[in-house]
Structures are given as structure tokens and as C-alpha cells.
Amino acid sequence: MRKALVGLIRPFGLLAGLLMICVPAAAHHGTSNYDQGKTVTLSGVVTGFVWSNPHAYLLFDVKDEKGNIVHWAGEMNSPTVLAGAGWTRTTLKVGDQVTLTLRASVGGNPVGLINRASVLVNGKRVEPGPSQPQQ
Amino acid sequence: MRNGMMSLVLAVMVAAAIPSSSIAQRGQRGAGTANAATPAPPHDPRDLSGVWTRTSRVLTMSAETPPMTAWGKEKFDATRPVYGPRAVPGGNDPMSNCDPLGIPRNLFLEVSIYPMEILQTPKRTLQFFEWAHVWREIWTDGRKLPQNPDPRWMGYSTGRWEGDTFIVDTIGMDERTWLDHFGNPVSDDMRLEERYRRVDRDTLELTMTINAPKAYTKPWVSEKKIMKLAPQGQEIQELFCVPSEEQAFNRLVRDPAAGTSKPPQ
């Protein structure tokens, strides 16, 4: 179950890549640290969901092909943006099984920009909560 | 020309960055106000109070950056932005350390990404910016701008009405700030004029002009920025840039993503 599902997908042209990278995270995060055309899909276990300003981020462990644990980090939006999408600081908890897609970093380290819409928690998609007045 | 291209790319990128929920929200508002048979709701054109949401997608003055002086170019070349065509991994954007963006950069975020609240009192008009949860004072008590003031992140601002146009003059900006996300320079001789006009109850227009002969060889006139009145109940959120949290983020995420350091394992 915890077997890492790793896929390197290049389905997009440059423009599509540009648009993809400009998920709301790009609003103040900058885009130069992430590959515009390379995504990675991973399954792992949450070791931390850091609800910090101005960036929330997820820490999670993934087993590589050799069975070694790799500590991953994934950048997310600000808590205000996440809250507007119905997320809370407990949407992801330590020990949760997650499957998600990230935009790979240019630095070659196990870090990425999380596509929020892709996140499955314990097999379930994160349901948007009640919309808040300000996203 | 190069700067024009830059802004074009930028416009596409920023357009894509606008959260879809905000577009949906504007769509709903539009649906409520588009009925031609309904008379426009009354408004006081000299009352700018309210929470204003952005519609502009350009995170700087306009698509065309004016030519720079040698001083301006040198300062520009020393910046390594993380946005736009000059973006590099890591970069040296002061925003990455939660340094104050200052004026006008903070303002660009508020008319392009985040909402801004305006409060008017008899002697001051106050702007509350969601980004970094900071405010700005625009004095309307008749005072003059100071002469040769010490620079400040937000500069010094006075405001006055000409007809239904609220005109804000700002000087004394801090040269440590970047003018925008793309590293355009700020000079201590910069003078910013903002002209606000509430054209109907729901629409606030803003045009800006920068005169900064130390950095640019010509004045820089902005595109017309248009903001919309937020739905009743929408408030400015607490979006601080917290230095200690940003440092942890840089160590665990940003710097490893850029490849400038290894993540702790």
C-alpha cells in the first residue's frame, strides 16, 4: 500500500506547463524553483503539515524503488488561500496516507510544488469545505 | 521591447495564477449587476471606503518599462527575480525574507492578487493591504510632503480631491525595495502619483505615474487598474509574512527546490 507510485509525466507543452505552474501558489511564491513541464506522482505518509505564513507545506515520507524512505517536502499555498478552498490545519495529519502530484523542483531534491487538486488522503479526495468570503 | 515581452509573459503567468474561485466570485457579481433594466445603485464618488478586489493581472505599472538610466540599469541587473523571464532558481528577492515590499510594490499585489481595504477619516485615508497585513497612511489634513525626508518602506503620502478624483502623492521611498516582482529599480527621488476614481458603486479605477529621473529616463504611466467592490462580508485576511516561518520554509522547501542547499534528511 505504501509502495511508491512514481511517474514522470511530460504531457504538456511549454505553454501548458506555464499555465500549470501558475496554480494559485504562484501568486506570491515565484515559479523559478520548479520545472515547468515535469510532474511527479507519489504516495507516502504524512510526517508534518505545516500551516505557516505565507506558505503552508507538507512533509511526507515515500519509499523509493529500493525500499528506502525518502523525506519529501511539498510547497502549498498560503493558509488564507487554503482556508478559502475549505482546507484547515488538520486537513492533513501526521500518519495520513497521501497520494499527490507535484511539480518537480529544478534543484533535483525531493521537493515539489503540490497540485492541491490532486491530493488524496487515505484514498479520498480532499473535499472542499464551505467556501469562505475571501479565498 | 524586451521589457514589453517580459510583461506579456508576465501577464499570461499572473492571469493563470488568479484563483478560479475569485473569477467565479466576480462572475457572480457580474451576473447581479449586468441587468440593463436595473438602474445603477447610488454611490458617493468621494467615498472610497470598502474592500476592493483586484482585476488587473499585471504585477507592475504596465507592459512597457521606460528606459533606465545607467544607475537604474546597474541596480536592475543586480536583481535576480523569481518571477518573469529573468527568473532564476533561488533568486535574491527581498520578499523571500519577508522584507517589506514598500510602495508601490505592495500596491501592485493588492490590485493584482490580494484585496485591499480603504478607510476614510477626515484627516487620513488608510489603505489596509492583505499581503503582510500592513497599512498605509495617506494624509488629507492639508499638510505638505516633507522635504528631503529619510526614506521609508511606505514613503510619505498626501491626498487631495480634484473633482471626483482622489490624487495621492508619495515620495521618500526606500531604495532597498524592488519596484515590482521583476526587479525594476526604486530610487530615492521617486515620486508616485496615484489617481483613484470610483466610477460606479462597484468599480474603482486607479492609474499611477512614476517620475524617478535617477532610475528612469522617462515617466512611467501605468495601465488603468480596475478594482471591484467585494461582496458584503468579505474581509481582509490575516496574511502575514512571518520571518521565522519563512526561514523554516526556505530551509525545508525553497532552497532545496532551487538546488541552493540540500534538504535536511
Question: What features would you describe in this structure?
Answer:
The complex is a heterodimer of chains A (about 140) and B (about 260). Chain A is mainly beta and about 140 residues long. Chain A has a domain at about 40-125: Nucleic acid-binding proteins (OB fold (Dihydrolipoamide Acetyltransferase, E2P), Beta Barrel). Helices cover about 15% and strands about 40% of the residues of chain A. Chain A contains three helices and eight strands, in the order βααβββαββββ. Chain A has a five-stranded mixed β-barrel with strand order 2-3-4-6-5. The longest helix of chain A is centred in the N-terminal third of the chain and has 8 residues, at about 15-20. Chain A is globular. The model of chain A is unreliable at about 1-25 (pLDDT under 50). By secondary structure, chain B is α+β, with helices and mostly antiparallel strands. Chain B has helices at about 1-15, 20-35, 70-75, 105-110, 245-260, and strands at about 50-55, 115-120, 125-130, 135-140, 155-160, 165-170, 190-200, 205-210, 220, 225-230. The longest helix of chain B has 16 residues, at about 1-15. The radius of gyration of chain B is 19 Å and the shape is globular. Chain B starts with a helix and ends in a 7-residue tail after the last helix. The chains are: A mainly beta (about 140), B alpha+beta (about 260). The interface between A and B is large, with 45 and 58 residues.
